[in-house]
Design goal:
Putative FecR-like transmembrane sensor; 7-stranded antiparallel β-sheet; alpha+beta; FecR; Phage tail protein beta-alpha-beta fold; globular; Jelly Rolls; membrane; transmembrane
Length: 320
């Protein structure tokens, strides 16, 4: 999650991530008029911004969140600021809201997880042997539901990312469904990552991808495609070593912004990582790190870019 400091009130990221960051910031009693005007401009800039913020408000006020918090009270512990820093009262309050907002984002996927046949938590990966001899490797913080019968081989990726090794069966194509995409194959190896868009990367073979409006594309080995409800990007070449590095427990990136890398790393981290300096978040970084100690990776990236790491609690790390 990216949450900018006083010098840059506009939080960059996906519309949903931006909405979460703005939601936390606007609940800070010291938020000024300039920041509120920046928020109003962001919300009015695109319809999807207003829609994303409305979803956050609706979920925040929903009975489902209250029930989730009551069921898992340990998920939102008291905030203890361990390191002195500028405006401690303000940031302690913001940290409390960010913890709740982070749990809000997690709670939004609880229904899918209850419906899933297989799930993983942050930092966990799981290998699943399917009845047809195919294999699924479920990545961090993911949920998968099976849809198998005598005539159909299918799964629904409800959240997160998975790598599929599909056994060939021409009579029964293997189908992976997400909220906006259908991926159909006979026998191949590929990964699917779902979210606001669905990303498909092919390791070997060919897959056919279709979005909710019927637009389709064929993706071959070494290619990646991004699909939404309304759009399908042309297939582009991808670096297989980086695309499938997570299968070996690594995160590999080349000339990416620090904010993007921290957002990716946050998927594997047991708490929330907040980028609190927009300008520093634009710093370009390259690296190859093991994912078994995400806190150490954050510290290493901070050393490279001259950032400061503040551990607010075991559940919240701020980089600024």
């Amino acid at each position: 999650m990216t949450f900018n400091g006083d010098d840059d009130p506009k939080p960059p990221g996906t519309p949903q991530a931006d909405a979460l960051a703005w939601f936390a910031r606007l609940r800070d009693s010291e938020t000024g008029a300039a920041e509120r005007e920046a928020f109003a401009a962001w919300r009015a800039a695109k319809p999807e911004h207003a829609e994303a913020y409305a979803r956050v408000e609706k979920l925040w006020n929903s009975p489902a969140l209250s029930k989730a918090l009551a069921r898992f009270p340990a998920a939102v512990p008291p905030v203890v600021v361990r390191t002195p820093w500028r405006k401690p009262r303000r940031w302690a309050a913001a940290a409390s809201v960010l913890l709740l907002v982070g749990w809000l984002a997690a709670a939004s996927g609880l229904i899918d997880r209850w419906r899933a046949d297989y799930t993983t938590v942050a930092g966990e990966q799981r290998r699943i042997a399917l009845a047809d001899g195919s294999t699924v490797i479920l990545n961090t913080d993911s949920a998968l539901a099976l849809d198998f019968n005598d005539d159909r081989r299918g799964v629904r990726l409800l959240a997160g990312e998975a790598y599929f090794e599909v056994r060939s069966d021409s009579a029964r194509p293997f189908v992976v469904s997400t909220g906006n995409t259908t991926v159909r194959v006979v026998g191949t190896r590929f990964s699917v990552r779902t979210g606001e868009t669905t990303s498909v990367a092919v390791d070997s073979g060919i897959v056919a991808c279709t979005n909710g409006q019927g637009a389709g594309v064929r993706v071959t080995a070494g290619q990646r495609v991004s699909i939404s409800q309304k759009t399908v990007t042309p297939p582009e070449q991808t670096d297989a070593e980086r695309a499938f590095a997570w299968l070996k427990g690594r995160l590999i990136f080349k000339d990416r912004s620090l904010a993007d890398v921290l957002d990716e790393l946050d998927r594997y981290h047991p708490g929330i990582i907040v980028m609190a300096n927009g300008k520093l978040g634009d710093s370009r970084v390259t690296g190859n790190y093991k994912l078994d100690d995400t806190a150490a990776v954050v510290r290493a990236l901070a050393d490279i870019t001259g950032a400061r790491v503040i551990t607010v609690s075991p559940y919240l790390t701020v980089v600024r």
